[in-house]
From TrEMBL:
<dbReference type="InterPro" id="IPR000719">
    <property type="entry name" value="Prot_kinase_dom"/>
</dbReference>
<dbReference type="GO" id="GO:0005524">
    <property type="term" value="F:ATP binding"/>
</dbReference>
<dbReference type="GO" id="GO:0004674">
    <property type="term" value="F:protein serine/threonine kinase activity"/>
</dbReference>
<dbReference type="InterPro" id="IPR008271">
    <property type="entry name" value="Ser/Thr_kinase_AS"/>
</dbReference>
<keyword id="KW-0067">ATP-binding</keyword>
<keyword id="KW-0808">Transferase</keyword>
<feature type="binding site">
    <location>
        <position position="40"/>
    </location>
    <ligand>
        <name>ATP</name>
    </ligand>
</feature>
<protein>
    <submittedName>
        <fullName>Protein kinase</fullName>
    </submittedName>
</protein>
<dbReference type="InterPro" id="IPR011009">
    <property type="entry name" value="Kinase-like_dom_sf"/>
</dbReference>
<dbReference type="Pfam" id="PF00069">
    <property type="entry name" value="Pkinase"/>
</dbReference>
<keyword id="KW-0418">Kinase</keyword>
<dbReference type="InterPro" id="IPR017441">
    <property type="entry name" value="Protein_kinase_ATP_BS"/>
</dbReference>
<keyword id="KW-0547">Nucleotide-binding</keyword>
<feature type="domain" description="Protein kinase">
    <location>
        <begin position="12"/>
        <end position="250"/>
    </location>
</feature>
Length: 250
């Protein structure tokens, strides 16, 4: 049975699919008052992911984060109703590369907004654990929101079995080892995105990035340090440094 047109929760009508999360299908929807929202539908066997995302996302109140408003069910599948993040995922929005050269001001605004979102999360004692282009929705002017909290949880949370959380290309070394993750682990993902913006490609272990004249290169190197203890762990300070370096001539 097609899902479009179905009404879920308190009068929210599904309109059309608009994307996929790491474990879900996302629909554009409208509430009973005609206001746009999003409905994220999980496979039945991933109910735990939906519950976890609701737990960590329903109390968030920040302009650079989507807020999970309600837990629902669609065709016996767990679902979440959230505020809508407009725009395109980061890599689609900055199709002309490198973004720092082709659209410097919008791209740096995107990075600032991402750091704003992380600063708020980290102040609450939470880490996102999956910073990647698909989880950063970007509008035409570079304004951005961070989405998808199904891997999020308390900083330095431990599990009975080590879990390698995140997406390989953006995963910190400690995440790849299955260690408990802190703010510096999220900021490693920011560093990978910043390096992509500077160089126009993701890093290749066999072919290091060439030296860059851009002053942002120093921040990229600091954020992607393999040693988590040498890496910045304060999103607000990284934001300040990003803005300071961005104003330097090169």
């Amino acid at each position: 049975m097609p899902l479009a047109g179905q009404v879920v929760g308190n009068g929210v009508r599904l309109v059309r699919p608009v994307g996929r999360g790491s474990h879900s299908l996302v629909y554009f929807a409208v509430d009973r008052g005609g206001q746009p929202c999003a409905v994220k539908i999980f496979p039945a066997h991933l109910e735990g992911y939906a519950d976890r995302e609701y737990q960590h996302g329903h109390a968030l109140e920040h302009p650079r984060l989507v807020r999970v408003m309600a837990r629902a069910t669609v065709d016996e599948q767990p679902a979440l109703i959230s505020t809508l993040a407009r725009g395109e995922v980061l890599f689609q929005r900055y199709a002309q590369r490198p973004a720092v050269s082709t659209e410097r001001r919008p791209f740096l605004l995107t990075m600032v907004h991402l750091l704003d979102a992380l600063g708020y999360l980290h102040a609450l004692g939470l880490v996102h654990r999956d910073i990647k282009p698909e989880n950063v929705m970007v509008e035409d002017d570079g304004s951005a929101k961070l989405v998808d909290y199904d891997l999020s949880g308390p900083a330095f949370e431990t599990f009975s079995t080590p879990l390698r959380m995140g997406t390989a290309a953006f995963q910190s070394p400690e995440a790849a080892r299955g260690e408990a993750l802190g703010p510096e682990s999220d900021l490693y993902g920011v560093g990978i995105l910043l390096g992509w913006g500077i160089h126009g490609a993701l890093p290749d272990p066999e072919e290091p990035y060439p030296l860059s004249a851009d002053p942002l290169g120093a921040l990229h190197l600091a954020l992607t340090s393999a040693d988590r203890h040498a890496r910045p762990n304060d999103a607000a300070r990284v934001r300040q440094e990003l803005l300071r370096l961005a104003s330097l001539p090169y």
